[in-house]
Design a protein that fits this description.
It is an enzyme of class 5 (isomerase). Its cofactor is pyridoxal 5'-phosphate. With 438 residues, the protein is α/β, with parallel strands linked by helices. It has 2 domains: 10-76 and 327-437, Aspartate Aminotransferase, domain 1 (Alpha-Beta Complex); 78-324, 3-Layer(aba) Sandwich (Aspartate Aminotransferase, domain 2). It has helices spanning 10-22, 78-88, 99-111, 124-139, 165-168, 179-182, 193-203, 228-239, 259-263, 289-292, 311-324, 328-350, 377-381, 385-397, 418-437, and strands spanning 45-49, 52-55, 60-63, 117-121, 143-147, 185-188, 207-212, 242-246, 269-272, 283-287, 356-360, 363-367, 400-401, 410-411. Helix 2 packs antiparallel against helix 11 (311-324) and helix 7 (193-203) runs parallel beside helix 8. The structure holds pyridoxal-5'-phosphate and 5-azanyl-4-oxidanylidene-pentanoic acid. Pyridoxal-5'-phosphate binds next to helix 4. Pyridoxal-5'-phosphate binds at residues 123-125, 128, 151-153, 213, 217-218, 246, 248-249, 273.
């Protein structure tokens, strides 16, 4: 067999040249750019199957991006593809209700304890946007408290100290968002209850909601410290604010019943995305029936969407969640992630590279640091960015695809079998050696 082309390769490079001419930065979402890892052409993808994605130059990669989270079953899962193909043959969109929307709503309400009623939208951003409008409309208050390094999509009011691409590219607040729109946004420190208590002490009766990623996944992977989510719940209860979990990333990934089940803390409102659409553009907002009926047409808070509840998205979501529901997907993933994490730690040690791995359910993150635990944003920011960049490129060269940023969580799927893990660890051995060489 011939050696693979240099990665990404000449076809990706040519597509990138064309893309840059017609699209800002050549990408349709900044999280895909390689600007945070030294620039250059990203791999342009041709197809994906199971644990692997294949680029246009014929390179295969074991994939830990998983479309930034949705692909927990692995790419091109046969049941999901079949459901979408069958539905596509019936017509794409109707602007009138379908049984598929009912079926997915019933599945979500059945799987997630805090959700009795759900509204489908088209992305995680829309879910977050709807969640805060709902919270404001329901409480009659305006202020939203969020956390530095958390990301809730590109919602104007939440695009302050945001994680993900904004963090990777050093954009703390976005031009185009008027100051007046963020005057009601309060920013606290993730995993620091005192910072939240201070905000409540100053603005207690003005805060409509606390918006939090229950596991912070847009500043690498930072699980909540003991008592943090419980403390948020108590502060919200004491002050009449709603607790909103942004489970766009963690929903159905950290646990089959979402992070709220894993940590045993019940939010008032949940934003969903990614896995709920099985790889199609779907988001959802869920809560108690009483809170949800604040939305039009039962209530006065307006929210709408031409393509909301899209039949293809609903079909993919149903085919995905119905496989997750019994717990078998997570049960299959756990020992694989155990093997991956212990294998990575052992190889980093062998090469003398300081590494800490953090995980929650089927997501994880690598921190190039001496610290044994990373819980705060400033500790994430203090990790060795140069080491990450070297590691990222060496992994890519050895056929493993990671997100091109030290601030993105990594995602494993049911399709990551022993062979994929072995391949990843072999690549990591070479990559840690490259990091150690400096
Ligand atoms: C926690 C979280 N919330 C919201 C979003 C926004 O979702 P989307 O990109 O689908 O708009 C994302 C990811 O993008 C996310 O990780
Ligand atoms: N953690 C990053 C994301 O979840 C979103 C990716 C994107 O904005 O393209």
């Amino acid at each position: 067999m011939s050696e693979p082309a240099a990665r990404p390769g000449p076809r990706s490079a040519a597509l990138f040249e064309r893309a840059r001419r017609f699209t800002p930065g050549g990408v349709n979402s900044p999280a895909r750019t390689f600007d945070g890892v030294g620039g250059g052409a990203p791999a342009f993808i041709d197809r994906a199957s199971g644990a692997r994605i294949h680029d246009v130059d014929g390179n295969a990669y074991v994939d830990y991006v998983g479309s930034f989270g949705p692909m927990i079953l692995g790419h091109a899962d046969p049941a999901v593809i079949e459901a979408v193909q069958k539905q596509a043959a019936k017509g794409l969109s109707f602007g009138a209700p379908t049984g598929l929307e009912v079926e997915l709503a019933e599945l979500i309400c059945d799987m997630v304890d805090s959700i009795e009623s759900v509204r489908m939208v088209n992305s995680g951003t829309e879910a977050a946007m709807t969640a805060i409008r709902l919270a404001r409309g329901h409480t009659g208050r305006n202020k939203i408290l969020k956390f530095a390094g958390n990301y809730h999509g590109h919602v104007d009011a939440l695009l302050v100290n945001a994680g993900s691409g904004a963090l990777t590219l050093g954009i703390p607040g976005s031009p185009g968002v008027p100051q007046s729109v963020v005057d009601d946004t309060l920013v606290a420190t993730y995993n620091d209850l005192d910072s939240v208590a201070e905000a409540f002490a100053a603005h207690g009766d003005e805060i409509a909601a606390v918006m939090v990623e229950p596991v912070a996944g847009n500043m690498n992977c930072v699980p909540p410290v003991e008592g943090f989510l419980e403390g948020l719940r108590a502060l919200c209860d004491d002050h009449g604010a709603l607790l909103v979990f942004d489970e766009v990333m963690t929903g159905f990934r950290v646990h089959p019943a979402c992070a709220q089940a894993h940590f045993g803390v019940t939010p008032d409102v949940t934003a969903l995305g990614k896995i709920v659409g099985g790889g199609m553009p779907v988001g959802a907002v869920g809560a108690s029936r009483r809170v949800m009926e604040t939305l039009a047409p039962t209530g006065p808070v307006y929210q709408a969407g031409t393509l909301s509840g899209h039949p293809l998205g609903m079909a993919a979501g149903i085919a995905t969640l119905s496989q997750i529901r019994g717990g078998a997907v997570h049960a299959a993933i756990e020992p694989r992630l155990d093997a991956l994490v212990s294998g990575l730690e052992a190889r980093a040690r062998r090469h003398g590279v300081p590494l800490t791995v953090q995980r929650a359910g089927a997501m994880f993150g690598l921190f190039f640091t001496d610290a044994s635990r990373v819980t705060r944003f400033d500790e994430v920011a203090a990790c060795d960015g140069a080491a990450f960049r070297r590691f990222f490129h060496a992994m890519l060269d050895h056929g493993v695809y990671l997100a091109p940023s030290p601030f993105e969580a990594a995602f494993i799927s049911r399709a990551h079998d022993e062979e994929a893990i072995e391949e990843t660890l072999n690549a990591a051995d070479a990559a840690f050696a490259a990091v150690a060489r400096g």
